[in-house]
Design goal:
single chain; alpha/beta; UDP N-Acetylglucosamine Acyltransferase, domain 1; 2 domains; five-stranded parallel sheet; 15 strands
Length: 269
């Protein structure tokens, strides 16, 4: 039990930069207290002391603003940031290292007994106000945006936004390909995902996808030509100094603009 509490406290430092010391975390994080209350109530629930389990859950809701049914199954290092308004239903299952924010609901869409709440994999992050409803499966490392409403299963590594929730970024394989082609051509792969709100970053992401497609096709063509006896296409593409060239171009443009301004002021210059 104490080992689990130490893990919970350590997970707060990993995910909340506002955490300053252990005593502060231990005494001032209601989301952490709600998880500890739940572990106690869940133990009573498993041992068929269900009224007592529900009573502890109710006391926890009064004190923390977080409502977790004692029947819910929660993994290790689960972190509820801010906490208030979180609702987790009876048949919900949450994997290790998950993080949810205030106002999140893991709810059901049916009054029938049985599995009716979501199942979260490991490393899932759910933003403030999001709703995940029904006996869904949210796979590992999924990101759900604030105020999204998720009504269907989500594959591993995806990012979901909107009402109803839609996938705006693919799984780890797609993101890995984009990162690899970005590195190959000298780009910084940071923030080029398709779910980035920056339109410039979105365009760069599309360019990287297009370059990856062309690079793959050219590689296949070169391989076919070489098999026929040709000798084309070096094994590696030449390095492109995107950052250096961009800086040089910007400096040249600025120098030209300064020169034009001076010429307008004094043609003799």
């Amino acid at each position: 039990m104490f080992k689990s509490m130490r893990e919970d406290i350590a997970s707060v430092f990993d995910r909340d930069p506002a955490a300053r010391n252990t005593f502060e975390v231990f005494t001032n994080y209601p989301g952490l207290h709600a998880v500890w209350f739940h572990r106690l109530s869940h133990w009573f629930w498993q041992h068929h002391l269900k009224w007592l389990a529900r009573f502890i859950s109710t006391v926890s809701r009064w004190l923390t603003g977080v409502e977790i049914h004692p029947g819910a199954k929660i993994g290790r290092r689960f972190f509820i940031d801010h906490g208030h308004g979180v609702v987790i239903g009876e048949t919900a299952e949450i994997g290790d290292d998950c993080t949810i924010y205030h106002g999140v609901t893991l709810g059901g869409t049916s009054w029938k007994a049985g599995k009716r709440h979501p199942t979260l994999g490991q490393g899932v992050v759910i933003g403030a106000g999001a709703k995940v409803l029904g006996p869904l499966h949210i796979e590992d490392n999924v990101r759900i945006g604030s105020n999204a409403v998720v009504l269907k299963d989500i594959p591993e590594g995806a990012t979901v936004v909107g009402i109803p929730g839609r996938i705006v970024a693919g799984g780890p394989e797609e993101n890995q390909k984009r990162a690899e082609i970005a590195e190959k051509f000298g780009f910084d792969a940071y923030a080029v995902s398709m779910d980035n709100p920056d339109p410039v970053a979105q365009v760069i992401g599309q360019m990287l996808d297009h370059m990856h497609c062309i690079d793959t096709k050219v590689g296949d063509m070169c391989q076919a030509i070489n098999q026929l006896g040709g000798d084309v296409c070096p094994k590696e593409l030449p390095d492109i100094k995107i950052e250096d060239e961009a800086i040089k171009a910007a400096e040249e443009k600025a120098a030209k603009e300064r020169h034009e301004e001076l010429m307008a002021f004094d043609p003799k210059i």
